[in-house]
Amino acid sequence: SLNQSVSQISASSQKPSTLPSQSPKLFWYQLGMFFLCYMAWVCVHMQREFWAMSKKAISQEDPDLPKTYFGAIDTSLFLTYAIAQFFTGAIGDTFTKRKVLAISFTIQAGLFGIIALAAFKGWDHQMLFVFLFGGIGLIQSVDFPCFISTIGAWTNERTRGTVTGVWATCGNVGNILGI
User: Fold this and answer.
1) Are 178 and 49 in contact (CB under 8 A)?
2) pLDDT per residue over 36-55, tens digit each?
3) Which of 19, 30, 68, 100 is the most exposed place for a label (fewest CB within 10 A)?
4) How high is the pLDDT of residue 133?
5) How far is 31 from 119, CA to CA, in rounded Å?
């Protein structure tokens, strides 16, 4: 049955040599999981690229912004992301990855909603955006380890490198689409 196949796939991360023969139904579940993980990480990179491309328009609209404004925001995003990566991978190991990713993307959506509200209201306080983008970096640091683990668990040892290599292109695709 499908549940037995999925259970065996989940256990395969510990015993890759005992993989079951693949059923067509399981293949479609694996393809769906790959597509969801791929598109979710594409969206993360689209956001990052869109933000990078938006800075010029924002600075032209408000020429009084200090030159360090965007540097502080970028530093808060990427520094919290980089530091948190050392610790947040354990969250995906401790809790259900599906729930962790759902919560992560929900929080990110909320933070982006606050950024949109701030733009609508004309709030341009640097510390507000430093805090919001730092929160986005912290939350996004959970995603990558969960995606890699999920891709690894849903593929067999023979194709894991190929599948992960194809999945790794999603960052580039997101960067292109974010332009």
Assistant:
1) yes
2) 888 988 988 888 888 888 88
3) 68
4) 94
5) 38
Mean pLDDT of 1-20: 48
Encoding tokens for residue 39?
Answer: 């598109």
Radius of gyration of the chain (CA): 19
Structure confidence at residue 21 (pLDDT): 59
- How far apart CA 38 and CA 33 sit, in angstroms, is 8
Instruction: Give the SS3 label for residue 147.
Output: helix
Token digits for 99? 């729930």
DSSP 58-102: HHHH-TTS-TTHHHHHHHHHHHHHHHHHHHHHHHHHHS-HHHHHH
Tell me phi and psi for residue 63, to 5 degrees. Answer: -70, -10
Mean per-residue pLDDT, 166-178: 85
Establish how many alpha carbons lie within 13 A of residue 35's alpha carbon, considering only the half-sphere containing its beta carbon. Answer: 6
In angstroms, rounded to a whole number, what is the distance separating the alpha carbons of residues 171 and 48?
10
Q: Is residue 47 within 8 Å of 178, Cβ to Cβ?
A: yes
**Helix residue ranges, H only, the chain:** 2-12, 24-61, 69-94, 97-121, 126-153, 160-167, 170-178
Which tokens is 124 given?
A: 């341009």
- In the DSSP assignment, the letter for residue 21 is P
Query: Contact at 8 Å (CB) between 12 and 157?
Result: yes
